[in-house]
């Protein structure tokens, strides 16, 4: 069993990056505390790595004070350790995915062979396979699938006409969503933002009102991630208004409405408005009752199960570990739920236990998440920061072995 003092090197913590950003502005720790409203003791604990700096709301508060982007605190793209061969393969595919995304909107200039091989049924099958790989958190497989798929869909969208053209753009939208999630999970935030723009643009070409509205869920997320809560709220409210105008909405529209209500609750949670976050979550609960089933329309999960999962993640966002653990005990995850989604739930449970000082329970939840989806767990910023903090303050045990796999020590 390795002792932390025996482990050489290690990745920077969020606190170390925060310290450098503060010193770059020639601020004292007291100045940063005054600007953010946190205590001097909290700032010192963050910078010294004795307190996990993993909550987005806290990071965004620090970013607003320091005038920086959240990734300047959370770190750049994840670099898996050399021993993580699948992680290395996943990262190796980023450049090819980026190239395919950059080519969006440019003439495809297809060869005669490419034009002759356009097959929408085959493209639909390949797009579904790419999304299955993403749901399974098989990032190494997705990295090999996405570049050629995006190229072939770009060709199809350019050469097809009429209904076939709209179908091609619908598949292209889905593939861009897959690429966006792949890039985001690997920490390539700027590239993921670019992919989100491609998602929104492609959806407009489908002429499908619900498909177009669904992309606003991701668009709102972009503003939410940088603390632009008013702008995110405006996008969410606009989508909910449009959905409210639909007479006799079908399951797709109801599911989409619930997804936006959950996004609204997250926006309030990140803005430290716990009361409004809870109200929106309960509103989504009424929508889930109306829907009566779990659905995954437009790759946006919603239904009773997802509502229960968000009932755990929202308190975690606000640092309310006891409430999150209490709700987690009532969550029943169906076996058919994707490994990525199930692992994310256990990551939230682990963080909630950590906030309660229950380190063994936290480690157990993180290990469960890792068994379900190794790559997604090891590349999760919150896991990496929390485990790193546990190692710095606990120094020995199974947590150090997990830290090695994460590449944080």
What does this structure look like?
By secondary structure, the protein is mainly α. The chain has helices at residues 14-24, 29-36, 40-47, 56-66, 71-74, 85-92, 94-102, 112-116, 120-135, 139-159, 162-185, 189-204, 209-225, 229-244, 251-270, 274-291, 304-317, 321-328, 339-355, 359-372, 374-378, 381-394, 398-406; strands spanning 295-297, 300-302. It has three domains: 1-77, 434 Repressor (Amino-terminal Domain) (Orthogonal Bundle), CATH 1.10.260; 79-207, no CATH class; 228-318. 72% of the residues lie in helices and 1% in strands. Strands 1-2 form a two-stranded antiparallel ribbon. A hairpin with a 2-residue loop joins strand 1 and strand 2 (300-302). The protein is globular and about 65 Å long. The protein starts with 13 loop residues before the first helix and ends with a helix.
Task: Reconstruct the topology from this structure.
Layout: H1 14-24, H2 29-36, H3 40-47, H4 56-66, H5 71-74, H6 85-92, H7 94-102, H8 112-116, H9 120-135, H10 139-159, H11 162-185, H12 189-204, H13 209-225, H14 229-244, H15 251-270, H16 274-291, E1 295-297, E2 300-302, H17 304-317, H18 321-328, H19 339-355, H20 359-372, H21 374-378, H22 381-394, H23 398-406
Antiparallel strand pairs: 1-2
Helix pairs in contact: 2-3, 6-10, 7-10, 9-10, 9-11, 10-11, 11-12, 12-13, 13-14, 13-15, 14-15, 15-16, 15-17, 16-17, 17-18, 17-19, 18-19, 19-20, 22-23
